[in-house]
Amino acid sequence: MREFGSVGAAMPPRRRAKPRSPEHAALGAAIQRLRNEAGLSQEALADISGIHLTHIGGLERGVRNPSYATLVRLAVALEIRVGRLTLLADEIREEAG
Predict the structure, then answer these.
(1) Which CATH architecture is the domain 22-96 placed in?
(2) Statement: residue 25 has pLDDT above 60
(3) Nearest of 97, 91, 22, 7 to residue 63 by alpha carbon
(4) Count of other CB atoms within 10 angstroms of residue 66
(5) DSSP state string for the chain
(6) 71 with 85: CB under 8 angstroms?
(7) Is a pLDDT exceeding 80 seen at residue 71?
(8) What is the CA radius of gyration of the chain?
(9) What residue segments make up the domains of the chain, in order of their start?
(10) What pLDDT is recorded for position 5?
């Protein structure tokens, strides 16, 4: 029997440590802020939006690149317009400098 981590054993994919860009980080912060304001956990947002939980986490960390369809699904789940989400992301990015 092989031990986890031994040669040939399947390893989980590496988690990206840093956001893709300042814009991705700001979008993730906006998603997290709006989710918290709505009183939702990541799991609840995943259930409502139909987006996988790990994808939600990756978006909030800024390591995933969402499609427009994903942004729409998030906005519908958060009961906001996509424009509010992107405007908040722009504001957060500007505040960060």
Answers:
(1) Orthogonal Bundle (1.10)
(2) yes
(3) 22
(4) 19
(5) -PPTTSTT---PPPPP-S-SSHHHHHHHHHHHHHHHHTT--HHHHHHHHT--HHHHHHHHHT-S---HHHHHHHHHHHTS-HHHHHHHHHHHHHHH-
(6) yes
(7) yes
(8) 16
(9) 22-96
(10) 52
